[in-house]
Amino acid sequence: MRVSANLTMLFTDVPLAARYEKAAAVGFKLAEIALPYSEPAEVLLENSQKFGIQHSLINAPAGDWTSGFRGLAALKSHKNEFKESIDKAVEYARKLDCKRVHVMAGLAEKSDVEAKTCYLDNIKFAAQKLAENDITCLIEPINSYTIKGYFLNSYEQAKEVLDQVNLPNLKIQYDVFHAQQINGQLTATLKKYKNDIGYLQVAQVPHRLSPGFDGEVDYKYIFDVARKINPDWIIGCEYNQSKQDPEKDFVWANAMGLKF
Question: For the whole model, what pTM was predicted?
Answer without folding.
Answer: 0.97
